[in-house]
Write a structure and sequence with these properties.
Layout lengths: L1 E10 L2 E12 L4 E4 L4 H4 L1 H11 L8 E7 L11 H11 L11 E3 L2 E2 L5 E2 L4 H10 L4 E5 L3 H4 L6 E5 L2 H9 L11 H7 L15 H13 L3 E4 L6 H6 L10 H13 L15 E2 L7 H5 E2 L4 E2 L1 H4 L4 E4 L7 H5 L2 H6 L1 E5 L4 E5 L3 E6 L20 H6 L4 H4 L4 E4 L5 H5 L7 H18 L14 H7 L4 H13 L6 H15 L7 H9 L11
Parallel strand pairs: 3-4, 5-8, 8-9, 10-17, 10-18, 11-14, 14-17
Antiparallel strand pairs: 1-2, 2-4, 6-7, 12-13, 15-16
Helix pairs in contact: 2-3, 8-18, 8-21, 20-22, 21-22
């Protein structure tokens, strides 16, 4: 008897329906075909043990399991339940009348318990798109799948419950999640707040500008000056995620298997801070079975690289294209997958190996030329993609000892949101551009026009401070954002002055 059950495979952040065909006939042996990997092939032993534990068995006949389409590689242990239900139905141990109406996925333990799987959200979205009535999966993943409307999500604890459901002996209550309620519940819950930061008004202002325009920024300062502390608070001043962005972000985390148990939706912007020993594949994604990397996990959020010069140069260089395109394409001989990677890049570094170059109190002990050599670890093309260079000065004791709180993140965020609304209106006719940092040269010329006084100021700054040519467009973009924060239609000289102030590493005399 031939029976068909349905599972799903994820490629990139999308899913493809997999048809599992099971034929039980006279003979001996078990055949699993359709390009399965080792984890799928090992399912026979898990299924055999789980069924025996629950009072069922794999029939002692010839069993052929085909996973179609046969030219797509099937990976992982999530097909255990799909194959097991097909074997039971083909051997007439369960009623097969409802099998075709459901996507069935789950990893089996030896006692029949269902373990959580990856990629549940894109699978649920594809199941609804393909017209399936419901999705049967492990209970731990049910809330994640339930944010998809018009799909019956049945979370089971073990295979016995699934068998009972198809035989009519057990009722599995559908999991229901109010998507909008779940989204708004945790929308403004942040662990860190700028209220806790003492002093550092210049740096907080720079980060407000960066958040308002979507600009990348680098924080340069001695050890203990608060670079990491400040960076961790950036998500709290970014505009809240939209529901569409939340679903996009959740899909990526779901595919990577990073969703917490009983967690349905990511509603706050991600903050990723990988260690400097990370490999280039782990950062941008890839591997024999392509998985999203840290830049995709930071999609719609912040990627923070602490101690930037300590990262391998090859690791930093692979970020150049994703920073421009806001996506990363991973190509293999038989397939190509694309992951979104629209993130705000924040970096932190010491000004020199000893950490005290330009320190107001301590002397730098680095030899001549060492500082410049240290800075040269970061390539020009990568630095070209960083709009704001912020010098972080150590906070004096007087400010540290004060009991007064700083400005709350909520207040800063309100100003950022208003500036972003101005930019959304400005770029509504430009597809794919939603903030000032994304402007190309044509848009810079159109929206960043400056007066004669502004041109004179910029000319003097470039000559006197030795600013590089690549700083020109960056200064105009940042000054446009500062003008938006001031609700100014035109870029004033005061806006240009502040933008010039945040180009420290472009100065000829820096590090010499």
């Amino acid at each position: 008897m031939i029976v068909k059950t349905y599972g799903s495979a994820t490629y990139g952040v999308n899913a493809t329906t997999i048809t599992v065909e099971v034929n039980v006939e006279t003979g001996i042996s078990f055949f699993l075909v359709g390009l399965p990997d080792s984890a799928v092939k090992e399912s026979q032993q898990r299924i055999d043990s789980a069924l025996k534990y629950c009072g069922y068995r794999i029939p002692g006949k010839k069993i052929v399991v085909n996973m179609a389409p046969a030219d797509i590689r099937k990976e992982g242990s999530a097909y255990d339940l799909t194959i097991a239900m097909g074997i039971l139905a083909a051997s007439e141990q369960i009623n097969a009348s409802l099998l075709g109406q459901y996507i069935i996925m789950g990893e089996l333990s030896l006692d029949g318990e269902l373990k959580p799987i990856k990629g549940v959200l894109p699978i649920a979205i594809e199941a609804r798109k393909q017209g399936f009535k419901g999705f049967i999966l492990p209970e731990d993943n049910a809330e994640e799948a339930a944010i998809v409307d018009n799909l019956e999500v049945l979370g089971a604890k073990n295979i016995k419950e699934v068998i009972g459901f198809f035989n009519g002996d057990c009722v599995i209550e559908p999991t229901v999640v109010n998507t909008r309620e779940e989204f708004y519940k945790n929308l403004n819950e942040y662990e860190f707040d700028f209220e806790d930061v003492k002093g550092q008004e210049n740096t907080k202002r720079a980060l407000e500008i960066a958040a308002a325009g979507g600009h990348n920024a680098i924080l340069i300062g001695p050890p203990g000056s608060g670079k990491t502390m400040l960076a961790k608070r950036i998500p709290s001043i970014l505009p809240p995620l939209t529901l569409h962005e939340a679903l996009e972000t959740t899909k990526i985390h779901s595919v990577a298997g990073k969703m917490q148990k009983h967690k349905s939706l990511i509603s706050i912007r991600p903050f990723r801070s990988p260690h400097h020993t990370i490999s280039d594949v782990a950062l941008v994604g890839g591997g024999s079975n392509p998985q999203p990397g840290e830049i995709s996990m930071a999609h719609n959020g912040v990627l923070f690289l602490d101690e930037l010069p300590e990262f391998k140069r090859t690791v930093l260089e692979v970020m150049r294209q994703p920073l421009e395109d806001r996506s990363v394409c991973i190509s293999r001989s038989k397939m190509s997958v694309e992951y979104p990677a629209s993130f705000m890049f924040i970096a932190a570094m010491n000004p020199c190996p000893c950490g005290y170059y330009n320190h107001p109190e301590k002397d730098c002990t680095c030899a001549a030329g060492i500082v410049q050599r240290y800075l040269n670890k970061i390539s020009g093309p990568l630095m070209d993609r960083i709009d704001l260079h912020v010098e972080v000065i150590p906070v004096p004791f007087k400010e540290l000892a004060t009991k007064a709180s700083g400005e709350k993140s909520d207040s800063i965020r309100e100003r950022v949101i208003k500036a972003r609304e101005i930019q959304e209106a400005r770029f509504q006719e430009n597809k794919g551009i939603y903030c000032n940092a994304q402007m190309n040269s044509k848009l810079v010329a159109k929206y960043c026009a400056i007066s004669k006084e502004g041109q004179d100021l910029l000319k003097v700054a470039m000559e006197k401070l030795g600013l590089s040519a690549r700083a020109y467009d960056r200064i105009l973009k940042v000054s446009r954002t500062i003008a938006d924060l001031d609700f100014s239609e035109k870029i004033q000289t005061v806006h240009l002055s502040e933008a010039i102030h945040f180009r420290s590493l472009d100065r000829d005399n820096w590090g010499k």
